[in-house]
């Protein structure tokens, strides 16, 4: 018996020792140099030029993933020494090596080498474009494309998203998990515009490119019977939208990649959804106007692996709205993170029903202040806090002050020093420039926001900017949004009310949605319909976020039942780009703070307000740093951008009376 037991133990040890750990395989692609771009000898103007930051992007992402946080075993890479770097698990192709055939063959190699449970990371930085969708499966009738270094000449065309989709489908059918990261224009369906800032796209292919039939088999990808793997795609820009590259510390990089690498350095084993949300937040704070996207299994951890162990800290019991937690910045605690409270450390580590919860509102080196959602009914003799949502430290908004008199510059700099949401640094995301007899706020792309203001009002303008960015960031989708939102064309009835405009078949005409932006024209009458698709009544609130940084509460109502909707009419005015913020809350919220002009450095009334959302709105109005806010209680937020542009020929009109 003892011998048999020993043999069993040995066999178990051998089997356990033989268990295969999942491998992360990777393919990095970066293309600055194109054979058929403008300026090359013998080329007619193809409508696009070489880039300057795509190869830099590859180096930046590789360095982040090879570093101590992820420790991927990547081969040495020096683009000056060659355009190919590879080892047993990773391939890097840049410039001349990133041909159509080279990319497809490398991707097929990595898929065949991957076993069920492995993760395949595909990163691309370069030009993207569009072509007609001959499969009729893409919204808007366009397919996204990846421009290879040899595309658009010699009979070689772009790699279209449907071809990439075939290969990724073949990988997931083998049980391989695929994560794709694309810093290019039109990358929303999987796959940068050119010049200027610069942009990463090329003119669309008017005739359309046909997908390659049975591409996976042609490339020799061998089927393997396995449970399907998951797929996640993070993109720099929506279809039809430009992806920018900018200069940072003297080096060109894609705006998406710069934000991605910053997020990877900060987040502790994030899910793909958390990573995407943090990238979006960082791009918004940097003044980047493109719309990064995310789709797929967003709840899965980036590059797989076990979930991070939750942080648990002792809490000093006390009566009141705030408690001191024995954990600070040295232990990774960050402002805005959410903690649940338990009567003991053991119960906190086990999870389960909590006594209450709160959000970190001040962080020291060893302790932090936890602002409670509501005071505890009775403080137990001991407490422990378990982190349930980690919010990475929010970077301040980078600002530069240009020109003007030295005295005014110094006064503005002193005012900026009192705002925790800003820092004076280059390269800036925003510029405050002396022009037009005052100080003009401009985005990094030169776009003017509002008009010139006196030096004494500059700080208030910056607070408005901070408020606007914070409220705009509320609308990050989290996959559990219990709201349905539509914008419908409307006509004015004889009694002055709005009625929806219908087509010949009786269907309501909706305003077009392009790149996640509602498109309208000056003078359009619009009915906004905001439906509660949850399982309980909710209080609706609507606010207008103006291009001039104004925030205007539009409407608050009594709760709407599940399945019911709030309908609100608006008339679109002059051309521009604004947004509507929609809130659904489990209790009425106080919007009075947002009806006042922002006051830099005003004392916070947050502790006197009843909910985390109200505290956020009050903080927004005094220019608090734009933190991601945990979705606690029963509330959700949606931000819908609206572009008002000159009318098109097919603009619907109301019937004449």
TrEMBL record:
One of its GO terms (molecular function) is cysteine-type endopeptidase activity. The lineage of its organism: Bacteria, Pseudomonadati, Pseudomonadota, Alphaproteobacteria, Sphingomonadales. GO terms for biological process: proteolysis. InterPro entries: Metacaspase (IPR050452), Pept_C14_caspase (IPR011600). Keywords: Signal. Residues 27-294 form the Peptidase C14 caspase domain. GO terms for cellular component: cytoplasm. The keyword Iron-sulfur does not apply. Pfam families: Peptidase_C14 (PF00656). It comes from the Bacteria. Residues 647-657 have a biased composition (Basic and acidic residues). This is Caspase family protein. The keyword Membrane does not apply. Residues 629-657 are annotated as: Disordered. Residues 1-21 form the signal peptide.
